[in-house]
Amino acid sequence: MAIDRGTEYQDAEKREKIARLAPVVDVAVDQELAVAEEDNGHSEEEGGLCESSAELVCKGKDQGFFTPEDILDVLPNPELNLDAVEDILIAADVEVVDGDLPADGWEDDEPKIVEGEEPEIEIEPIVEFEHDGIDDPVRMYLREIGRVSLLSATEEVQLAMMMERGMASAYRLSQRRLSPEERAKIEQEVIKGELARQRLTEANLRLVVSVAKKYIGRGMSLLDLIQEGNIGLIRAVEKFDYRKGYKFSTYATWWIRQAITRAIADQARTIRIPVHMVETINKLIRVSRRLLQELGREPTSEEIGDEMQISPEKVREIIKVSQEPVSLETPIGEEEDSHLGDFIEDQGTLPPAEAASHQLLKEQVEDVLDSLSHRERRVLQLRFGLDDGRSRTLEEVGKEFGVTRERIRQIEAKALRKLRHPSRSKKLKDYLE
After folding, report:
1. pTM of the model
2. CA angle 410, 413, 416 (to 5 degrees)
3. Domain residues for 128?
């Protein structure tokens, strides 16, 4: 118990120290990013914007938001110049309101476009979301992640460097030969690294939403897709190497897609299909659609196989695997008063005519057996399984009667000769057809 209390005391002391240092370190992170941004200057950002773009930035800062018309006046085809759109949004640090603009062109850079809402969106604290009248959890989530501003390439590098220093400090912290001053300084670096990791993750949550929307309709809800994409984003944050020179969003997109596609393969289907087979099915579907356009008809298995360089048997196997299971409770008809299971034949139940004939045969056999002696009737019932459907051997029947196998064989032969007599066989002859 003494050891447990000591450990609990140390953990409590550590949590208290982290809570005490977190606000200070958070300010330090902001200051470090600000210094890095000042060192680089704003020349690159301002140099990349034309005169009209600079005016648009000023307009956005003055009115506190952009409308789709504001963007289209400066960039008629935003989908062809995503970098310029991103530069404008980062420079103005405002949101695009009113959802009339199609999101296909620039959803990767600014996925936070709320459709059907008021022109002006109030950014409220997270704690107030439960009382603001929003029922849709997706909209609540989008509003929450929209509060976090996007990062520039310089800020991404600075955050990655802080994460790297934080991990190195955590390793040093595991070494026990440290003075109290050194330990306190290293703990600050560790906390700065964790806050940098959190900042980099939260600033790219909108990227996950834009990727997840492309996978809607594949068996998982949007919230589940976002959740799986967030797991991929966390993995990307852990693996990101700023020394490569590419933007974090470019790198993270592949991790997000991988996490979502694997989740769809594992969870979307009632019967799980391996990931490699899902990829093969998708390839077959693409080839089939292309051949349909080229040939003007449904392609055959041989044609698909030649295109994919696999055998026709393999094509048919893939098509069979790709079939979706259907519930027997699926409603049928406009009134939906019947179900699919009502129209499927029950192979285990006899048709009424056969069931009636089987019952009549059973009654006739019982009448014929009643004309035999008790021992003969019992031997035939056991030998042919007339009672329970299980046939006994001569030895098993002999043990029940306490006689030899030969004696049971003789009784059976005598009983069968009696049944072949015309007086008895004529009752069963009609059932032999």
Report:
1. 0.47
2. 150
3. 44-145
